[in-house]
Design brief:
Blueprint lengths: L7 H19 L10 E8 L10 E5 L14 H9 L3 H9 L3 E6 L19 E7 L6 E7 L6 E9 L7 E6 L1 E3 L15 H6 L21 E2 L11 H4 L6 E8 L1
Antiparallel strand pairs: 1-4, 1-10, 2-3, 2-5, 5-6, 6-8, 7-10, 8-9
Helix pairs in contact: 2-3
Amino acid sequence: MRKLPVASLPVLLVAIAVGATLPATARSPQPYSQPPAFKVTITNLTEGQPLTPPVVALHRRPVDVFTVGRPASFELKEIAENGNNAPLLAVLGSSRGVADFAEGDGGPLVPPGTPGDATFDQSVEFELTSAPGTRFLSVVAMLICTNDGFSGADSLPLPRSVGQVTTHLADSYDAGTEANTEDFRDMVPPCQDLIGVTGGPGTGQSDPALAQNSVIQHHPGISGRRDLLPEVHGWTDPVMKIEVEALP
């Protein structure tokens, strides 16, 4: 066996060391690059239930809009009973965990073929700006022809790469804050004009006599006990489609 000159050993050792480190440096991981913006499209999937203009928000994990099985917040109660988005918008605007939020500005989302379809759309689009650490989307809107029904999603994971689109189908929920009388006098006024079934005048204020202290649960649907008609105002889940696209 031929011996290497002593002077060659340092050169050989350096070559071996460099060769051993090359694969690691060649495959260094790429940092995650968060999409700067998201397009959110909300669509009403029902045949007889208009939705109030939805509220949407991009946020970090600590923000909680609603949780099934727990009591509704005052802000959710106002949406589910009265279609009043203002309290939730105020909370979102003051929260450090919220990157961006918005309210639909085109009016209610109505089912096709109903009287309201002549004036309003079935869908609405938002473009929301992200921020470092933003990972989730929350959405909420009232089912207008109910006492305290709503639909939406809490803390949906956002798409992680530009061009990726995710779709979520949202069910209907009962806020557990008001008795389901199904009486037009106990519901917000737009229901009658949007769907075309008339009755007593509605109200945009909660009635303390109907208050309940239950928890959020899946909505039982329309029973037909008073003014609401299962064949007209009824639905099957899901009631809302939420599409999210990561924008460049």
